[in-house]
């Protein structure tokens, strides 16, 4: 029989999230049952709960930054045991057969990955995420959280952490490389930490200098305000890699102009309007404009192990479930440093 668990649910785009109960399936042979301890709040949760992306299947339980403890396993599970510390990120299944899935890039599944929430699973049932007391997930889409990282500060790594780790690793951030992180928010602060741990020379490009002290504390070597026009002049042809975490339409010609020969600008933010990329700015210096989206399961595990090795966790503010709606408003107002995490004991 399915198990009933407490959750916080979005019922309509114009309604606040509210407490409710949902059903979790009985574990199948390869399923892991996870008692959720903490769930991070990602801006994607807000876009979905408020219907801002236009494809929310209400009612839905948001949350794809999940950390908890295994409480039961299916009869054929080999990867995890009861009591293990585990996490679940942005997706809980994929086709497993296409070339990206076979290569460990399940996030780019040609048939579409199954989102942790606001999706439909193989049984035709809607998926619900981490704003709940428990979740049941196939073992192949679960990651182990190493000792040394608190479950609370590990939760945002399952989205924010891997979203930055994947492009930094793919474009070889490391010693001898100059890396710029655009924006010091829920995503950007993880980029600074990870790029610094990889050995790169790290610069933060932010609208103002108000977070400069934080940026330097987190590992940045340099910090510049993009509101100062001299920034783009002084940093022309400077960076091997620029990672943009801001979901706004930036003046791309200026940012591309900061790339060195063969440099790459990676777009992580998802602005409302199409991005204009001037061809000459790309052609000059043989620059590249690219995108990236989370990471596969193996890479996510690699990221968690890397963060444990380097003592990296997310900068968090832990809240009770009754503060979720307030937290949403604060995220939109950029009033958090740097990630809200829900203590699910309060559900």
From TrEMBL:
Keywords: Metal-binding, Oxidoreductase, Zinc. The keyword Oxidoreductase applies. One of its GO terms (molecular function) is zinc ion binding. It is an enzyme of class 1 (oxidoreductase). SMART domains: PKS_ER (SM00829). It comes from the Bacteria. InterPro entries: ADH-like_C, ADH-like_N, ADH_Zn_CS, CAD-like, ER, GroES-like_sf, NAD(P)-bd_dom_sf. Its EC number is 1.1.1.2. The keyword Oxidoreductase applies. Residues 10-342 form the Enoyl reductase (ER) domain. It catalyses: a primary alcohol + NADP(+) = an aldehyde + NADPH + H(+). Its cofactor is Zn(2+). Belongs to the zinc-containing alcohol dehydrogenase family. This is alcohol dehydrogenase (NADP(+)).
């Amino acid at each position: 029989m399915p198990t009933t668990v407490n959750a916080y649910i979005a019922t309509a785009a114009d309604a606040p999230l509210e407490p409710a109960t949902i059903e979790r399936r009985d574990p199948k042979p390869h399923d892991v049952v996870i008692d959720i301890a903490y769930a991070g709040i990602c801006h994607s949760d807000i876009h979905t709960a408020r219907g801002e992306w236009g494809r929310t299947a209400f009612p839905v339980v948001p949350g794809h930054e999940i950390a908890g403890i295994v409480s039961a396993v299916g009869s054929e599970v080999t990867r995890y045991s009861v009591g293990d510390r585990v996490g679940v990120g942005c997706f809980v299944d994929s086709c497993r057969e296409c070339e990206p899935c076979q290569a460990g890039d399940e996030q780019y599944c040609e048939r579409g990955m199954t989102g942790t929430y606001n999706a439909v699973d193989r049984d035709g049932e809607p998926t619900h995420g981490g704003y709940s007391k428990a979740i049941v997930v196939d073992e192949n889409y679960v990651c182990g959280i190493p000792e040394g990282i608190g479950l609370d500060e590990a939760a945002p790594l399952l989205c924010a952490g891997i979203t930055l780790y994947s492009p930094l690793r793919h474009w070889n951030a490391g010693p001898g490389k100059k890396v710029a992180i655009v924006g010091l928010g829920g995503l950007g602060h993880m980029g600074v930490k990870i790029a610094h741990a990889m050995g790169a020379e790290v610069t933060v490009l932010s609208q103002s200098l108000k977070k400069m002290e934080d940026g330097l504390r987190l590992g940045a070597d340099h910090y510049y305000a993009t509101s100062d026009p001299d920034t783009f002049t002084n940093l022309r042809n400077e960076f091997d890699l620029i990672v943009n975490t801001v979901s706004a339409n930036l003046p791309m010609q200026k940012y591309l102009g900061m790339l060195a020969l063969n440099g790459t600008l990676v777009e992580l933010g998802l602005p409302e309007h199409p991005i204009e990329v001037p061809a000459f700015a790309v052609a000059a210096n043989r620059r590249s404009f690219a995108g990236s989206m989370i990471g596969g399961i193996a890479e996510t595990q690699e990221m968690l192990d890397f963060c444990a090795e380097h003592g990296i966790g997310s900068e968090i503010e832990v809240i009770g479930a009754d503060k979720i709606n307030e937290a949403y408003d604060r995220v939109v107002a950029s009033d958090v440093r740097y990630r809200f995490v829900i203590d699910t004991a309060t559900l």
